[in-house]
Task: structure prediction
Amino acid sequence: MKFLKFTTTLTVLGFNQIQSFAPSSKLTNIVGRSDGSNSHSQLQMVDPSKDLTGKVVAQRYIYRFSPDKSAVTTPYTLEERQYYTVAEDRSLEPFGDKCFIFRDGESKDDVPPPEESLKKDGTPRVYKRIGKALYTIKDLSEGVEEEDEDLLGGSIWESTFCLVLYCMAHPEIIRGKGMEVGSGMGWGGILSTIGAGVASGSSESVPSEGYQSIEDIAATPVVEDVEISAENLMAPVPKNLSKIILTDSKEILLNKCLDNFAAAKFPISKAEVGSLDWNRRVPNDTKNQFDFILACECAYYFPLVHPLARTVAYSLKSSPYDRTNNEQIIRGNFLHIGPQHRERPIDDLKRKMGKGYRMNTSLKEIVMERIDLVPLFIDSVDDIESQMKEEVEGEAAGYVEYQNIETSKHLALLGCHNEDYDGFNGDYFFPAETGMEGSFGDSAQELDYGTEAM
Result:
């Protein structure tokens, strides 16, 4: 696997943010795509008598795990925003790229919702309560150039947000050295890592100088009383994260990952991108290297199952048995999120990992809700931060009007190694590599090395 250090590419590429503006749209006709990617419904009809010229419109969605239907829950939510400016002809021009806000759980005080009222069409207004903003990421780049629009990695799927919320529910997964396979533009790995940092109580940090030798550090003069503004602080990531590597096989997507690392203000010393082709044998310097591996919608048809399982099995750290404490030490965790309608290839991946690579696996069903909020009108860009604070701490007390709630089901596949795998004996230990896979049962449970207790 070829890795590109974040600091080196920072100089070469200059981190020029690629703006991906859509054509202008009328206020009454912002329509989402129907291809399953992450663009949604249309903005509500706005009173044509109102003068909205120069105002900023925020199209907003809240993602959360269903508190009563999902096997995995978390109080945290993720808000997705796209800002637009309003022209004189009432058309909307996108302003910047996507913005994401990590939010705390809703307040448990006794403040009642707003009094019942009706819309102009006679239907009642409905409200959901949101928590305070914990951290905001601005201008994550989406999409690829027109000639490369057929790249799957250039689309964002709702499973990405499910992955983020799962890592916020279980921030302990994000530790040590990690890798995301099939990163695409890097949203999943970047948002999940920062989300885990937010959930684990990490705070924004001073920018590092990237990779420095002891000689470089010794030669650096000490500067006192340096003013550190909010603009140059790095994103909060788990304190015990040493590095995450975003991987894909397409250079154009890896460049997008670099753009988005920079936009998210990801700590330089903890970020890398690397070219990885699952169809090639795993290099020796990649084997038994990663404390966690993330994947999102990578198992979407059968031919990908075996190369993906092999890459994960060889790259993930071993989980030996501690005979002193009489327990297995889980040193490497694999997490794959995919939609339930792809249950069959996900189950194939689970079976291949268990039967072909003797890994312990489990599946969890997750129910995620996407709450489509009523578009927000703001006087100017300068008022965005005060609006976010006022919405939760002011008279509204966090109650926000919404238009619709859509529910989607996803599957979380978790995996770790069998205790007898030592990290180096894979060529002899993995049945898929020895040609003995047919000698094993149809599932890991039949062999006593698979477990649903993860």
In short: Residues 227 and 256 are 31 Å apart (CA to CA). Residues 343-356 form the longest helix (14 residues). Confidence is low (pLDDT under 50) at residues 2-45, 210-217, 441-454. The two ends are 30 Å apart (CA to CA).
